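Encode chain A's predicted structure.
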Amino acid sequence: MPRTLIDVTLPISDKLPVWPGDLPVHITRVTDDLPMLSGLSMSCHAGTHVDAPAHFLPGGAGVDGLPLDVLVGPAWVARFGGRGLLTASRLANAAIPTGTVRLLIRSDNSDGVVDAFDPDFVALAPDAAAWLLDHGIRLVGIDGPSIEAYDAPGDPVHRALLAAGVIIVENLALAGVAPVTYELTCLPLRIAGCDGAPARVVLVTSDP
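Encoded structure for chain A:
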């Protein structure tokens, strides 16, 4: 059966906006001769990336310890319009199919071209994190720089999800992605013990 592959990974370049205080992306050309060689310096949380428990939890697992069976499998894309925090009630009214294990959130973060960090992005409210846990979500991704609001006191969303073993994927490129079920492949770099890692994320759908 024919398949369509959708790359939902932000391109990595020197122009990629990063979280305030993070290392900027810097690509260095080592040589212009052939074979061409380049070097890369960046935060492990720049661009499309996965958060590991070690990001917020003392003694938490690194990204190399995340289960592959959660990072690969069916995922539902939910579409939310408007700004502000996504609450539990909004998730409850979003017609997310029963039994969904992997949930990707397409919001108004995907609209337009982002060429600088904007702290006014759509993120989850703490009660939304509780809703995800109550409904058996094991992986949640969002099209903004964080699953949590900028400067959220105590980082309750990250802490609740990571403590429960939920994998967080941030900075997805979901513009134009329809709200249906896809086969998700999300493979973070296998960086030993690291709090997060850049990931290549691809959605696959079967053509009718």
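The radius of gyration is 17 Å.
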